[in-house]
Structure formats: C-alpha cells, structure tokens
Design a protein that fits this description.
Elements: H1 2-18, E1 21-24, H2 35-41, E2 47-50, E3 53-56, E4 59-60, E5 67-69, H3 80-84, E6 85-88, E7 96-98, E8 107-109, E9 112-114, E10 119-120, E11 127-128, E12 132-135, E13 140-142, E14 145-147, E15 150-153, E16 157-160, E17 166-168, E18 171-173, E19 176-180, E20 183-185, E21 192-193, E22 200-202, E23 212-214, E24 221-227, E25 237-239, E26 246-252, E27 261-263, H4 283-289, E28 298-302, E29 305-307, H5 309-312, E30 324-328, E31 334-337, E32 345-348, E33 365-376, E34 390-393, E35 395-406, E36 414-419, E37 422-432, E38 438-443, E39 452-453
Parallel strand pairs: 1-2, 2-5, 3-6, 4-7, 5-8, 6-9, 7-12, 8-13, 9-14, 12-16, 13-17, 14-18, 15-19, 16-20, 17-21, 18-22, 20-23, 23-25, 24-26, 27-28, 28-30, 29-31, 30-33, 31-33, 32-34, 33-35, 34-36, 35-37, 36-38, 37-39
Antiparallel strand pairs: 10-11
Length: 454
C-alpha cells in the first residue's frame, strides 16, 4: 500500500511539472530568448508566454498541444500588444505549422504573423499556408494579425487534409497568393469561423478568390466580420463548383466603383483613383475596387513607371477580372518588375476535373485584355516547374497586346501558358532572354481551342 501511495504521488508530481509556464523575452530575462527554444522544451499542456518584440523564426507545434500566447488579454483588449509581438518568417516557409494532429488544446493567441512563404504538401507541386499551415489538425487561432505572407495556396492560412481549426477574432489582410485565396480550405477539411468573436478578412490578393478559396463540401458556412466587399463574386470569394458554402459578410471595406480607374507608382491607395491626377498606387487595389459590368467594358489605366513589390507595394501576379481591361500608357515605360518571385499575369479558376463530365459545366474567366506594358524578371519563387510570365487556366476571349516579356526563368516552365483555354489573341508580343521549356504553350484536353497570333 505504501508503494502504491508513493507511485500515485509521483504521478501527480509529474503531472504538475508538465503543466509549466515558460517565458520568452528577447532581452534574456525570461526562460528563453527564442520561441523555438521554448517549443523544443515544452510539453503538451504547457503555456509559452511571449513578450513583445520581433521574433525572426518559424514555429512547428510538432504534435504538442501547447498554448502559445503573447501578453494580449481579451478582457483588457490591449490590442497594441498584437502589433508589438511579431513572428516573422523571413520568407523561409510557413511561419506557423500544425501538421501532427494537434487538437483544440493547441492554441496560438495574440501575434502578428508575417513574411511567410508557405511549405510544400506532397504530392502538390506548390506551397500552402504562408502564414499558418494546418494539416490534419484542429488548433485554435485567436486574436492574430496574419499579414504580408505569400504562397501559392492559402497565403494567410491554409486548412487541408481533414483539418478542423477554430478561428476567432483574427485579422487576415494584405496576403498575396499566386493561386488560391488568403484563406484556403481544401478537400476533406473545414474551418470553424467563430460567430461571436468574428474574423476580418480583406485586402488580400490571389487568383482563385482573393480573400477566400472554399474547396470543401464539409464547409457549410462562413461568417466574416469585415470583408473586402459586402456582396462578393468569385473574384474575392471562390466557391468550388461541387460545394454549397454560404458566405455572410457583415461589413465591407470597399464599395465597388462603376468607373475606369487610374494607377501610378507614385499614387496612393487612399486616393479615389478616378483620374490621372488622383491615382491609386497598386494594380491590386484598382482591381479590387472596380466594379465589372458585362454590358460596359471598364479599364484600369497604368501610368508610366516601375511597378514592383519592393519599390511600391505591388502585389503580383496581376489577377485579371472579366470585362476589365488593363491598359498601360506605353509598353516601354510601364514596367512590372516581378523580382523573380511570381509570374506576371495569372488568370486561374480551380476545378476538380474528375467531378465534371460536361464541358458546359466549366465556367471560364474571360472577356478581358492586357495591353501596353513590360513584364520582366518573372519567376515563381518556389518551384521552377510552374509558369513564369503569363499563366491562363480555363480562360476564353482574352487579348494580350503590345507586351514585352524579358528575363523570366524557370527550369521546366513555359513563359506563356494557356491551359484549357481558347480564343486567346496574342498581338505584338516580344519575348527575349527567357529561360524554360518553351516560350508559348496553349492548349488543353477539353476540345475547343482557337488561338490567334498576330
């Protein structure tokens, strides 16, 4: 009996030890200087408290159900702490990773999560989850600002492989996806969007749903506090053809403008954009603000100058909209420097081809033009097999005219690809000093195809 009592006491003691609280402080007065050091020592059930500062690292929970929190307190609503406590991924993968069946006992609370570039998920050949990647796990993400991240899919947050996270009170903005939106929900997964502490998702940019890509039949609804627009179309919220997700947005940042818009590298995204004298700064903002109308073709005019992410906050690639033409003032003097990070133009609509039997079920992106500009230094930042200049997927009735494409590189990439696309007009296109498998590749397996080369 005495031995049994000692064993029970030992187990209780071990249990108390495991529920430790660790402090992370950059000045060395805490238990550790880096979050990674704390994560390596902590066990499931522990809490890691991170003091204000910028932590240049990436974090993987590695199956541990740990509470990782800043000093943010919901009761005090000291939101300045979120801006002051930053995890910066330095473009070296996903900033935060949950991929080992973490449960709701794993919590990320009160951080700014920025500068992630996503990580590969086999067998996909592109990156997922720039800010936060969630695979087969169900953590709680609360009161975080997920911003300035990039990835091919889910530049802010991606949920895949049976994941079921809870999002509450987060802000997801200014994230840049090459393909699928800032929040991407893949097959067999879902996200619980808290309806009491709402999430705000706006001013993101990506080809197949700038803010949200909803690709799971399990996702019945999404409720957002503040979105980009109040009544989103497939440009800001992309719902896959085989899903029936309802989306509710309570407030909007933008009231779409039924007019032509003007952009200049020297402009300001707080301007109206309604005249050359009051231009917007980024092409992305112009495309978010403009209101398409199939009965009246509208235009985004680009003034002379160099457009790049590093120089004037551009988000690339350009993601065209139907019935909107993008027109440069002079192809030699309107220069889009892609800095080796992305293709120049991507018009991409996602389909699971196995689910579609009839071509009439396809919904093409089309009825737009891109004219009078130069694309240079195109790449993709992560995978040389993906396109480097212009990439079309399920497009029709499109015109590219008076365009230079220079210095784009990818070992197994096409400089221009029109996959599953038809009625593509290429007029006065000059390609020079590009590297890849081919300059132009246009075609697909669905039948109709009628390109025009001028």
């Amino acid at each position: 009996m005495k031995k049994m009592f000692v064993l029970v006491l030992l187990l209780i003691t071990v249990g108390l030890i495991s529920a430790a609280v660790w402090e992370i402080k950059l000045d060395g007065t805490g238990d550790f200087r880096t979050i990674g050091e704390g994560m390596s020592i902590a066990r499931s059930g522990d809490t890691i408290v991170v003091y204000p500062g910028i932590y240049y690292e990436t974090i993987n929970f590695k199956g541990k159900n740990i509470v990782l929190t800043s000093l943010y307190d919901e009761k005090k609503d000291n939101r300045e702490v979120i801006a002051q406590t930053v995890i910066d991924g330095l473009r070296k993968g996903s900033v935060i990773t949950f991929s080992n069946r973490e449960t709701r006992e794993a919590v990320l609370n009160g951080f700014t999560v920025r500068n992630g570039s996503g990580s590969y998920l086999f067998p996909a050949e592109f990156t997922w989850g720039g800010g936060i990647q969630i695979v087969e796990s169900s953590p709680i993400i609360s009161n975080c600002h997920v911003t300035q991240n990039t990835a091919y899919s889910g530049s802010g947050i991606s949920s895949t492989g049976g994941a079921n996270p809870l999002l509450r009170g987060n802000l997801v903005n200014y994230n840049n996806s090459i393909l699928r939106g800032a929040i991407s929900i893949g097959k067999e997964s879902k996200i619980e969007f808290c309806t009491e502490s709402l999430n705000d998702v706006y001013y993101n940019y990506g080809a197949s749903g700038t803010d949200l890509f909803l690709g799971s039949k399990l996702q019945s609804s999404v409720v957002i506090g503040i979105g980009t627009v109040l009544e989103p179309d497939s440009y800001t919220v992309r719902i896959m053809h085989n899903c029936n997700t309802t989306v509710t947005i309570n407030e909007a940042k933008i009231d779409p403008v039924a007019a032509d818009l003007y952009v200049s590298p020297d402009g300001d995204d707080n301007n109206s954009g309604l005249s050359p004298e009051d231009p917007l700064q980024t092409i992305a903002m112009a495309l978010l603000r403009i209101k398409p109308d199939e009965n009246e073709r509208r235009k985004v005019y680009l003034g002379k100058g160099l457009y790049s992410r590093s120089q004037n906050n551009q988000m690339f690639p350009i993601q065209p909209r139907p019935y909107i033409d993008i027109i440069g003032s002079d192809k030699e003097e309107v220069i889009l420097d892609l800095e080796g990070l992305t293709p120049g133009v991507v018009s991409f609509t996602s389909y699971d081809l196995r689910d579609i039997q009839d071509e009439e079920d396809y919904k093409y992106i089309g009825n737009f033009a891109v004219k009078n500009l130069t694309l240079k230094n195109g790449g993709n930042g992560t995978n040389n097999a993906l396109q480097t200049g212009i990439w079309l997927y399920f497009n029709k009735s499109v015109v590219f005219e008076n365009i230079n494409i220079y210095d784009c590189a990818g070992e197994h990439a096409h400089v221009f690809e029109g996959n599953h696309s038809y009625d593509i007009a290429l007029k006065n296109i000059k390609m020079e000093n590009n590297r890849g498998d081919s300059g132009i590749s246009i075609g697909g397996s669905i039948g109709r195809f009628a390109p025009s080369l001028y």
